[in-house]
Write a structure and sequence with these properties.
The chain is mainly α and about 260 residues long. It is about 60% helix and about 0% strand. The C terminus is likely disordered.
């Protein structure tokens, strides 16, 4: 009886957490699957803030505004900002004064604010869930990870209840690591990847299609379509333990973004 109650509570918590984690929200969004996302918004839907930051950096690279630097860094390029650039690209350009690893660039406050703005737009569209809801869901999931170990340690647990507890643990783990996309957001990403599959063949002579490919497919597109920049800039690598001196130089005072 105790085992049945324990398993029932675990599955109830799992179902509540799944509903909170995956549901798009109460307020309907008209034609959610038909809305046109920018490449940076698409990158955030696919890979979170890091995906958006990578897409913004590729946007700058394709415009000649940044280039690969020394020892897996990026540095300012010879061109100004592209006309109509995204806020994320604009923020990265304005804070990049010298060689800097992409992840350190992503962590600068101004860039984080720009990424948060994009994130908020997708939250309002019910394509990703808020960070607050993610933490609430994880609070519900925490007890589940102890269900099977405690049941096994207590003894007297039949194989059926142990299997149910283990399945609840597995479900909790999947929800814990699940991307912040809602089911609506996942459906939109799947549709975009299907409709824009030809973008994976784009080259640097087709910057719009190449940027869309990076936004939709992430690391595989970067390695296949921008191998040299990806390797030399450290775009997919971890930053070095010691920060690299960014040096000095002119910044945003001499930059513009389409006037």
């Amino acid at each position: 009886m105790i085992n049945a109650v324990s398993a029932g509570v675990a599955w109830l918590l799992l179902l509540i957490a799944a509903a909170l984690r995956l549901r798009p929200g109460r307020q309907p969004v008209p034609d959610a699957l038909g809305r046109r996302l920018s490449p940076v918004q698409t990158g955030l839907l696919r890979g979170g803030r890091r995906g958006a930051a990578q897409t913004g950096l590729v946007e700058l690279y394709l415009a000649g505004s940044v280039k690969a630097g020394w020892q897996r860094t990026v540095r300012p390029g010879g061109a100004w900002l592209p006309r109509g650039c995204s806020e994320v690209a604009r923020a990265q350009y304005h804070v990049l004064y010298g060689p800097l690893h992409p992840r350190r660039l992503e962590g600068i406050e101004r860039v984080q604010r720009a990424l948060q703005g994009v994130e908020s737009e997708l939250e309002r569209a019910r394509l990703v869930v808020s960070r607050r809801r993610v933490w609430i869901v994880r609070g519900l999931l925490l007890p589940l990870f102890a269900a099977a170990p405690l049941g096994a340690a207590g003894g007297g647990q039949t194989a059926v209840w142990l299997i149910l507890d283990l399945l609840a643990d597995a479900g909790a783990f999947v929800l814990w690591v699940w991307p912040r996309r809602t089911l609506r957001g996942q459906a939109l990403l799947t549709r975009l990847r299907r409709d824009q599959a030809e973008a994976r063949q784009a080259t640097e002579h087709q910057p719009d299609a190449l940027l869309l490919s990076v936004a939709l497919f992430g690391a595989p597109a970067l390695r296949a379509q921008l191998p040299r920049f990806t390797q030399e800039s450290g775009l997919l690598s971890r930053p070095p333990k010691e920060p690299i001196d960014r040096g000095g130089g002119p910044g945003e005072a001499f930059a513009s973004c389409g006037g």
